[in-house]
């Protein structure tokens, strides 16, 4: 029987090989891409295994699920889930980076409760629908301005999830264009958080610097998150 360690190690090796191939195909290097292992729904014991395999960036979608794991395993903890105002204070207590900010009131509230510096990605909607979260491209400057005016938040870049009804290539090409325009006004926002298990290679070829990969490393999750 394969142990959980062997299962995760084997999956991780395949993902790392795919990252290698994708970066090579576009003349980038693997150290330009931060792999965030999305550990949502999986136990802290899996996070310990990832740490022993030298993966130290972890992504979570739910505060209640994440807080005890972040307390148990040191590393860089990312939050990429839907934000609820009443959870912001708790999220800020364990998260080092938040990928899913798309509302000014959340940025202002987060800045007030942050007990340490927090890196911020603004989530952009690539199809104009709010279904999978994200601000309209035309709203990004106002959001970026409030991050720059904050005391505790660092503007890192943009994040997006490819819409279900578009090819990921098409979606990430659009995202790259939005990002290149955005960076002219906000040069510190140089990072791009894009790509999940199904589409991280395409995201890398379109400039992703942070990929958020769950099921390809940890296996399928019981329920949709
Ligand atoms: C769950 C989730 C991921 C990881 O998804 P996989 O398909 O399991 O790799 C990445 N980003 C966001 C926003 C998520 O909610």
From TrEMBL:
InterPro entries: Ala_racemase_N (IPR001608), PLP-binding_barrel (IPR029066), PyrdxlP_homeostasis (IPR011078). NCBIfam families: YggS family pyridoxal phosphate-dependent enzyme. This is Unannotated protein. Gene3D superfamilies: Alanine racemase. Keywords: Pyridoxal phosphate. Residues 32-222 form the Alanine racemase N-terminal domain. PANTHER family: PROLINE SYNTHETASE CO-TRANSCRIBED BACTERIAL HOMOLOG PROTEIN (PTHR10146), PYRIDOXAL PHOSPHATE HOMEOSTASIS PROTEIN (PTHR10146:SF14). The keyword Lipid biosynthesis does not apply. One of its GO terms (molecular function) is pyridoxal phosphate binding.
